[in-house]
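User: Hi! I'm a student and our assignment asks us to look at how structure tokens line up with a sequence. Could you show me two examples?

Assistant: Happy to help. In each example below, the sequence comes first and the structure tokens follow. Example one:
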Amino acid sequence: MRSHGVPSFPDPNSKGQLLLPQDGSIDLSSLQSARQACQSLMPGGGSGPPSTQDQQKAVEYASCMRSHGVSDFPDPTVLSGGFTVNIPPDADPNSPQYQAAQQACRQFNVLPGG
């Protein structure tokens, strides 16, 4: 992704989750282009858009995170090759509150690594 025009694309965290910053450092059109170029490297081969069920689970995950104290957690961005979950720029994924929210909402997480 970084070599295809998204220089600030993050590595997955220790749980295998890919959380994109929501601070404007990633341009969505560049992300879409890079995603198409790297599709074969994605889990499952990037087999097209997510199912309606996976999209709904991702929205429920975001809603659950908000209800568990991560108040500005956004809904996912749906792209043609999948979707991304963006974390708020001021959120600390390592904080106890964020970790507790992730644990409480794990049944809705459709990302690789759960």
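Example two works the same way, sequence first and then tokens:
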Amino acid sequence: MITNVEYLIQKFSEAREKMDSYQSKDSGFNYWRGIMDTYHNLLSLSFPGWANEGTVGRLVFIYQKTYEEAKALIKNN
């Protein structure tokens, strides 16, 4: 079982970035969407509160920041 919430948030962000590089009709879009959904499900089931206000998870999931952008914003606040 993966127990590192930061790793999963980072992978979710990376999958969304890759998904965004495809058109919605491309097979790559659906592939990365599935990966992103898998990471989202793992986060939601294993780490309640992973996207609470003021967290990296919230910035990545709700505000669609990259993982690095989110980390920088949290660090600067």
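Here is something you could point out in your write-up. The chain has a mean pLDDT of 92.
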